[in-house]
Description:
Among the domains are: 149-291, Tetratricopeptide repeat domain (Serine Threonine Protein Phosphatase 5, Tetratricopeptide repeat), CATH 1.25.40.10; 526-714, Histidine kinase-like ATPase, C-terminal domain (Heat Shock Protein 90), CATH 3.30.565.10. The mean pLDDT is 83. It is of the alpha+beta class and 718 residues long. The strands form five sheets. Strands 2-1-7-6-5 form a five-stranded antiparallel beta sheet. Strands 13-15-16-18-17 form a five-stranded mixed beta sheet. Strands 9-8-11-10 form a four-stranded antiparallel beta sheet, covered by helices on one side. Helix 6 runs antiparallel to helix 7, helix 9 runs parallel beside helix 11 (294-336) and helix 16 packs across helix 17 (570-585). The chain is 58% helix and 15% strand. Adenosine-5'-diphosphate (ADP) binds at residues 616, 620-621, 623-624, 648, 650-653, 661, 666-668, 673, 678-684, 707.
Amino acid sequence: MARLRLSSFLKEPAHxxxxxxxxxxxxxxxxxxxxxxxxxxxxxxxxxLLEKERLEANRRIADQVIREVDKNISSVETALTSCAADxxxxxxxxxxxxxxxxxxxxxxPLVEETxxxxxxxxxxxxxxxxxxxxxxxxxxxxHSLPPSEKVxxxxxxxxxxxxxxxALAAYRQALKKAGDPQSEGEILNAVARVQKKSGLxxxxxxxxxxxxxxxxxxxxxxxxxxxxxxxxxxxTVLRDLNDGAVTVSxxxxxxxxxxxxxxxxxxxxxxxxxxxxxGALEEFLASTPSVPDRTSVKQDLERLETQExxxxxxxxxxxxxxxxxxxxxxxxxxxxxxxxxxxxxRLAMDIGAYSYLVSIPKPETEDLERQLETWGFIxxxxxxxxxxxxxxxxxxxxxxxxxxxxxxxxxxxxxxSSNSPSGSVAVRMDFVSRFPDxxxxxxxxxxxxxxxxxxxxxxxxxxxxxxxxxxxxxxxxLTIRTVSHELELARMKSDxxxxxxxxxxxxxxxxxxxxxxxxxxRLPSEERRQKYYDILLEQSERLSLLIDNVLNLARIEEGxxxxxxxxxxxxxxxxxxxxxxxxxxxxxxxEINLDAGKESVTAQVDREAFSQALANLLDNAVKYSxxxxxxxxxxxxxxxxxxxxxxxxxxxxxxxxxxxxxxRFYRCGDELTRTVRGxxxxxxxxxxxxxxxxxxxxxxxxxxKGSTFSIRLPLGRQ
Length: 718
Ligand code: ADP
């Protein structure tokens, strides 16, 4: 049972409730709202800050990546400048330039092609290993001299008289006299041809081998290098000799030489040789299915074909550049003028289907001759992307949070982060001097509130929300308690009102009825009249005990009750109370025994209050007596304490209720109690009064056997 103050029943608690609600609003809701608002603002600020920090970080990363790409290109440019300067110093012609550029290309994989732009002419690729040159554009010029007398004679023997042995001898004679490699190569070619015609296939094969070995670079009519022609003929001869494996290897050698390339061919010539070689190899594979290493031949062929395809592409690209870049480059060079600041001239250009990144490092040379030619290079865009851009981005921007895209001029993706870019573009940066013509974009999403909240470095918001949570929980508990208190109060109030009015009603009704009867004087006997008086006395005593109980408890609650202690002989006081009770209930056959001991026991007590406490105990003993009619009251001394015991043999109290009977309004739950009238205030008043006397009250009981209440009071101290 809730512990309630009796006074709170008696006063109207509405204003108090209003105050609690107001306090709750002021003390809990208001600070919570305020704190929540502050925390929310704080998180928002943090979010803005975080966004700014990220933006800055992204900008830094973009800058780093772009600078790294630029640094790599610059280092290639510097290397080319110094390479050009070295070659210029040596001044020993184009072969120096070629080897220097070859070395340069080998050291710088970013370079797709180096070129030399000559004034008033075109572009040269001294170091390029192009598969072929454009038709009619190549330097492969035949240096044939008019045939000598001896050669002419031999040709007569060969073509007109068809006397091959003589022709062979004549050619050999001519060979001895020739004296220059060009003529020697050409005569040897004739020798091999005649040998072939005469059926001397082995000899012809040997001659072709010698030709390709010793005179491979000689260019015969139509600009065909002797080496290529000799190799092709060699393969034919070997095939005629039915030497399969050797034929294949000769054909492969020729194919490899074409791809390396060993000779400088025009496109049509290259196409001719390449078609012949591939045709011969395929024919060979088709006609001789029983070759043991057929699969490996096939694989080798495929490998070389792929190689050819790649080189073809590169060659076509270089040729397109060769054909179309000069005007643009010259215009740009002229535009930059002489006095232009140092650094390289960079140009992103498209010719046909190809895109080029061209850089022409500015030579800082005074050498007039060197100024006539300009060295430059074409960047390998694919390598720049794979070897430089991608690693740089992975190094600086690999975090999960960062998403980026590199786009080319048309807006298509060159490279993108693994996490799909989302949000809006936060940073957009072009590469230095738009070279390559790419844009690096960083995407950013506003950081979400929860992550900001959890990620707040100071953790202050967590504490704030924790505090708010705590306050709210506290408030909730308080509210629940207040509300349940209020409900309990309301329930008890109605209980009390009905109980008290009921308690008042019965004795009042009895008193009134008896008084009316006495007043009318219509009573049969004096005896009956006496009995009525007894009942009148009992009921009015009960009524006043009840009123005293309520009033005293209220006074005690409010701290208004004053106790007047005086030395009282307890035996006498008990005698008075017992007598008064006997008077009230004697007619009902109750036997109340008092054992006050032999010695008088005096204690400091408030006579009236203590009497009331005793009267309450006795009243209960009578009320809850059940069928028994015996009550025992005893006074004794134990040490420094007076012990007053009131024992009955009534209905008793259950063990689990023993502690509760002293609580306000508590009434035991069993049926027997319910038949007896009561308010549940008597024992709580006993407890308060005894406590005011610095004593204690205690109960022992067994249901059905009776209860024993004992009061212990300190002696002689007050
Ligand atoms: P009440 O007005 O109900 O008597 P009390 O505070 O005096 O209120 O007693 C509280 C409850 O304790 C009673 O309702 C009753 O159930 C129980 N009680 C008190 N005295 C006795 C007793 N002598 N024997 C059995 N039960 C008792």
